[in-house]
Amino acid sequence: MRKLKLATVWLDGCSGCHMSLLDTDERIVTLLQHVDIVYSPLVDAKVFPDDVDIALIEGAVSTDEDVVKLKKVRSRTKILIALGDCAVTGNVPAMRNTCGAGPCLNRAYKELAELHPQIPSESLPRLLDKVIPIHETVAVDLHIPGCPPPADAIFHALYELVLRKQPDVKHLTRFGR
Q1: Global confidence as pTM
Q2: Which 3 state secondary structure label does DSSP give 111?
């Protein structure tokens, strides 16, 4: 049986979901017997490849670059998983929805700046008016909630997929856990 291609993507989040993936400890060696990590902040791939079997998406959608990246990932992936509360609900990044992108930028780059208060016009992706969970941009095949999701839930989901089964992580997760 060929190894599955696994990708992990980090959008607007804190990387806690990737840390939880690493918290699978020695079980990640078991997974690596069945998957190749083809794209991730954990490896040095620069281009999202074609024909990815499973993609874990951490973080919310908050910029125009996130939208483009997420649509590319969806078009090249068979099974897309929303990993963590930010991907599932928007969670902490969506807190800026109460005041909007403009006031957030003003606060961060003008009001709190000690030197040269100005909003950068280069090298920053454009913030969306509203931070959204990933299912509002692309179809999601599985949601794994949690902040971060428990390592047991991540391993269970990935290993069930490796075994060509439909994972059920409800008994292993809850929001905010």
Answers
A1: 0.93
A2: helix
Q: What's the chain's Rg over C-alpha atoms?
A: 17
Say how far apart CA 100 and CA 172 lie, in whole Å. Answer: 34
Distance CA 47, CA 34 (A): 22
- Encoded tokens for 38: 């083809």
Q: Compute the distance between CA of residue 32 and CA of residue 168 in angstroms, rounded to an integer.
A: 21
DSSP one-letter string for 98-110: GT-HHHHHHIIII
Banded pLDDT at 177 (limits 50, 70, 90): low
Whether omega before 148 lies within 30 degrees of 0, making that bond cis, reads: yes
pLDDT tens-place string over residues 109-166: 999 999 999 998 888 899 999 999 999 999 999 999 999 999 999 999 999 999 999 9
Tokens of 133: 């969970």
